[in-house]
Structures are given as C-alpha cells and as structure tokens.
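User: Can you help me understand a structure? I only have the sequence.
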Amino acid sequence: MTRAPKTSSNISRRNLLLAAGTGAAAFTVGAAIGPARHTFAAATTSSIAQDIDLNVQMEEIVDAYMALHPLPIQILSAPNARNLPTPRDAVEAVLTKHHQSNLVEPVGSVKHILIPGPGGDLLARVYTPFGSGPFPVLVYFHGGGWVIANLDTYDSSCRALTNAAGFIVVSVAYRQAPEHKFPAAADDAYAATQWVMANAASLNGISSKVAIGGESAGGNLAAVTALRIRDMHARMPIHQLLVYPITNYNFDTPSYREYANAPFLTRAAMMWFWEKYLPSPADGSNPYASPLRAQSLKHLPSATVIVDENDPLRSEGTAYAERLKDAGVPTVFTLYNGVTHEFFSMSAVLDQARRAVAEAAKGLRAAL
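Assistant: Let's start by predicting it. Here is the structure, written out as tokens:
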C-alpha cells in the first residue's frame, strides 16, 4: 500500500464532537491556541469524540462548505437532497475567496450524446483531449450514492482526467434511485460500457482501448461492471479506476466507526443512500451491489484504487484493493492522507487532488 504524503507540514488536528444520533448539526469554530478546533454539536444527549486530520487546503474547503449551511441529507427526500450545496460549490467559494477563476479546466472539446440503455436513452457528456486522435477512452460514472449529483457535479474530475491521461472521457448519466432502484444504475453502467466499446470510433476513440472508472457510487458501478463483463465472458475493459469506491453493504467497518461523521460523507448518509438504492436489505448481499462479496475477483482488469484518510468508505476500498491483489489482479492502491471523501474532484484548490489525478492518469496510460 502507498501512502501519499500530506500536502503541507502544517496539518491541523480537528476535534469533532460527533453526535451518536442523526439530528441536525450546528457548526461552530472555537478560538484555540494552535490547531483550529471545530465542534459539531447535535440535539442528542450522547456524543463521541473523533479526531480528524485535515491538511490546510482541505480544511479551508470544508469550512467553505459548512458556511453554506447544508442540511443533513438523511432528513431529506431525494428531490430535496439533490438541491443541497455540493463540494463543487465549496471549491467555487474557495476560488472566489482567493480571486481565482480556474474551476473549469479547458479540454479539446465537450459534446453530449445519447447512449441506448435498458430503460431508455442515457445522456452522456464526452470530453475529448487536445490533439487529433484517435484516443483511448474512459467510461466514467459519477458519485452521489446512486441518488444525488449529476454530470455537472463531477465535471472537474472528467476534465482533469481528460488532460492528465490523454483519454476521451465519457461521463454517463445513469438512472438514479429511489425512482430507479438496484439494479437500474448497474444495468445502465454495463450497457453504456458495452456501447462505448462497440462505438468508440464514432467518438474518435479506440475501441480496443476502453477503460472504466468512477468515484464513490460511480466507483461501485465501475467495479460491478467489470464483474458483470467477466461473468458474461464479454470483452474486458483495459483498466478500472476506482476512487473511494462503495464496495460493501456493511456499516460496521473500522472506518465507518472512526469516521461516522466525517466531512462530506457520514455513516447516516450512507445508510440513507443504501436504503434508497436497494429494493430490500437482502439485495445488499448481491455482488452486483456489493462487489466485495463476489466469490472471486480473478480475471478482472488491472486496477487503480484510491482512498482517503477521513472517510467511512476507507476500509471497504482498502479491502477491495487487497482482494484484487490476492486474486492476481495487478493493482495500485494509494491512501491519501489529510483529505476527505470528494477530494479527487478538487484539483483547482487541492494539491492532493492533483496528485491523485496524476496517479489515476498514470494507471490508465500504463494499461495501454
């Protein structure tokens, strides 16, 4: 396992007083000598203390997000949750604070296409690098717990990967829960990947050089797509890029306990996402929902697995990388310290994000 260095030697230790319940949290910053002390208080009689290490850049982003006063997602309906502030909003706020405007990274071109899916056409955004091509292709699935977020939310990741890797990135708007429960999103991811493999040339891509990837729930869909392709004996993608992937329906892992109320993703939020996604809890044992539960991970594409320090999903992402390695799958795994869930899309303001994107690009190019 590789541990990425922390961005700055000036690492702040946040002492988070975290509610044992799921009540609305109030964010306060208290004066302190030395590292900043941030307290999350909730309407509950029981709380636990957790220490979360954030580097200086990540801390500024979290502060900007909390200044937007987001409600806890678990108290909202899915339609309301889709209108909450996003990590992208926090990045924009930090850029504005520093009088910068480099959120939208230029790429060669951007266009939209429709991909036939099992429940109707799927909108996809195609990012093409500068140059004449043809180019290898990355089919990419956004995060959001299968419920929230969209192509715009993860636009920064796609642009960064397009330039860093020199791949066309096809970002797919799959069907979302609870309107479309499991396996709708997984079916869409599989169908989109198969379509891109068959039609890459129409995008100025190379059909024999198609990879898959995604963040969080999108990392889940990429991992599941690789499993399904293997099980269907279809042509494999050349690589899988899994960024803090959801891999298991299990809320009692070390990282779920340690980072139950981490910034940007909490244990309560993940329980809410899974409840919206699965038709029933029993479906959580299906390896196409929980790829860590697959009987075997042999004969899968090479993988780059990226996780972050302060994240409920850290344990299951780590476990998935270990199982891939044990199955003989060439796997590069890196834990990025000092950052949180969603950090990968923050290259405009976060050094660790730029390092992670460069690592992802390296893995994709190595698979060619």
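Now, to help you interpret it: The radius of gyration is 19 Å. The longest strand covers residues 205-215. Let me know which part you'd like to focus on.
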